[in-house]
Amino acid sequence: xxxxxxxxxxxxAPIYLWMAGxxxxxxxxxxxxxxxxxxxxxxxxxxxxxxxxxxxxSIPLARSGYTVTAIDSSPALLAELRKxxxxxxxxxxxADLLHFRSHVSAPANLVLCMGDTITHVQDQASVExxxxxxxxxxxxxxxxxxxxxxxxxxxxxxxxxxxxxxxxDRIHTCFLEETPQCMVVHDLLHxxxxxxxxxxxxxxxxxxxxxxxxxxxxxxxxLCAKVESGPRGMLRVTATAA
Length: 242
Prior knowledge:
Mean pLDDT: 94
Number of strands: 11
Strand order of the largest sheet: 3-2-1-4-5-11-10
Largest sheet: 7 strands, mixed
Order of helices and strands: HHHEHEHEEHEEEEEHEE
Structural class: alpha/beta
Helix content: 25-40%
CATH topology of the largest domain: Rossmann fold
Number of domains: 2
């Protein structure tokens, strides 16, 4: 079983932009999501993007006038972010999101943790740490937006096999395996090499977090949280500071 970092390094990071449909499609989708989630901009527009990846949300935020600190543990994805954010106010930091607070100082109007990133944390106690740090990092009336997949009622049977993307030279399929505390995610990647195909398989764990637990954990930090349907089959929790 690979760690999250090794799984991304060895399999997902090199194909992540391809999975998202290419940089133009990914940034257009990120811009649409940012337009829905972000608060009205003020004179000080500071954002933190946790699990920023190649910049799907960081770059649209910077284009709209935010100063963005983008945190991710993948050097390959951060290299893509730096490439596509050249000339924009984006600071890319290679770090674990559990330690993001040591890389920011100014209060943030907005903190994002998008995709299914929060489930990469390995236990609930560890999830509460960044939630507390987010609450302390937010400016008055600041907003925290986190999206995630609800694995409390995971798919079963054939629904556990998920086609991610395919083209003439590459097929990416995901298989989910349920355990009491987490989901084991098996990524299968077939790639054409000339006239033959090769297969690579890597597996890692995702924490099973319920929307009720997440909202309660955020409210224990003093934030006011609500859960809604989110993009791409995920849930969205929006939490605001007093």
